[in-house]
Design goal:
57 residues; two-stranded parallel ribbon; 2 strands; 32% helix; globular
Amino acid sequence: MAELNAQHADLPGDFAELTLVAISERMDILAIATLDSDFDLYRRYRKQPLDRVFRPE
């Protein structure tokens, strides 16, 4: 978590968001169901973006 926090220090992320990023890395899950647009900016290890499932029109 500390490494993710340092990696994304310039983003307005919080512990809950970074926890979801960490879980996606450990469980190899690329898609996340959220309306939070911050997840368009987060990157997993190897700079992989998360696929945000819900996007408001």
